Amino acid sequence: QVQLVESGGGSVETGGSLRLSCTASRYLYSMNCVGWLRQAPGKEREEVAAIYTGDGSTYYADSAKGRFTISQDDAKNTVYLQMSSLKVEDTAMYYCASGLGTRCPRLASEYNYRGQGTQVTVSS
Fold first, then answer.
1. Which distant-in-sequence residues (6+ apart) come within 8 Å of 71 by Cβ?
2. pLDDT tens digits, one per residue of 34-85
3. Are 81 and 55 in contact (CB under 8 A)?
4. 3-class SS at 92?
5. d(C-alpha 43, C-alpha 87), whole Å
6. What does the DSSP 8-state code read for residue 85?
7. What's the rounded Cα separation, in Å, for the pair 32 and 24?
């Protein structure tokens, strides 16, 4: 099992930036796949980015490509999500998640563990 703690959410205007952090209770290399998920009111939870912690391979949903960057800091057991050029439609609760096995990326429903979430609100 792993505990995940997110931070860094907040309110920004369209075009702004935020950096989310996810600190894990285990070494990142032992977690295989770490993803950032988001869920907006009335919508299903979706994976927006994922990183395979063994080799740093990354994946982005189409909505995140070119604007979001996922990265890891092994020394801090932390995965980051740098978000730029934010849009109103990026407004959601963002969760850090990890799961059993090596599949990466994966469906949001396939993650076994996730944090409490951090709210991101983008206003026009």
1. 51, 79, 80, 82
2. 999 999 999 999 999 999 999 999 999 999 999 999 999 999 999 999 999 9
3. no
4. strand
5. 16
6. S
7. 12
Quickly state the pLDDT bin for 31 (edges 50, 70, 90).
confident
Strand runs labelled E in the chain: 4-7, 10-13, 18-24, 33-39, 46-52, 57-60, 68-73, 78-83, 92-98, 113-114, 118-123
Burial call 93-117: b when 16+ CB within 10 Å, e when fewer: bbbbbbbeeeebbbebebbebbbeb
For 1, other C-beta atoms within 10 Å of its C-beta total 7
Three-state DSSP at 22 gives strand
- Tokens standing for residue 98: 């990890």
Which amino acid appears at position 3 of this protein? Q
